[in-house]
Amino acid sequence: MKRIGFYIALPFIYSISYLPFSILYLISDFLYMIVYYGIGYRKSVVRQNLQRSFPEKSTEELLKIEKDFYRYIVDFFLEMLKCVTISQAELKKRWSIQNDAILDELLAEKRNIIVTAGHFGNHELANLALSFLIKYRVKAVYRPLNNKYFDDFFKNFRERYGSIMISMANASKEIAQPENFNYAFFLVNDQSPPPERSYWTTFLNQETGFFTGIDRFARQYDMPVVYMCIDRYARGKYKVNVELITKTPNALPEGELLEIHARKLERDIKANPSIWFWSHKRWKYTKVNGEIVPVSYKK
Asked: Which residue among 107, 161, 190, 240 is the one 20 to 30 A from 133 at the CA level?
């Protein structure tokens, strides 16, 4: 059944992917009405996340963020399908980078680096664009799909401009792999981790756990850590902003890397809240009086 579903979906994927962006966004405007007003995809999750993250905002302000998020998430989905066939020339028209001199300096020192980011902005398009926006070879950690046919398909288009996709299960092995090139090891760190093995901090007004891989890998392999913000400044237009966190991870207290990552991501979300994944059940667990407790997502 998984194979049949894949081959049924394939013509739809390509028919959407070959459309120009102007037509994609017309379709997106129509689909937004269906997704938001008709289906109401995970609307209760989005509302709960927004209310708990921004208790200081009015009902009207939260509703605006909510609607802007749904407009964005439909754009995101169609832009992801566009990734299947998009050319480098088209990507170059839509992407720019700031502060990349930081990366050039680290590359001149022949140092592999860890790049930390969040699900903020279109990371699927970014994966393709970064292949020519930066001089490092991109190694990106991802979560494989359950359907092997879709997983292979998405992995292939993500790698077509030179990025190397690494499953989460192989991250520890791959980061230790010697290469004849310098690489940037990308870890997106804003999903819900196993609570007992998390770094805990206050994030968006809530006690929040973070995966610890950034801190652990940086210390073990003495790798500089860079934060990247993928910001959308217009529809279909993105810019990457680069910030150095540290060149000497072992000089920082344990957990400080994760704290800095959390603060930078929180800053970016507050500045442009509609382009973060509010539909994700990010807070499956929280802490109350130091104890880990499950969070109920109301329907």
From this structure: 190
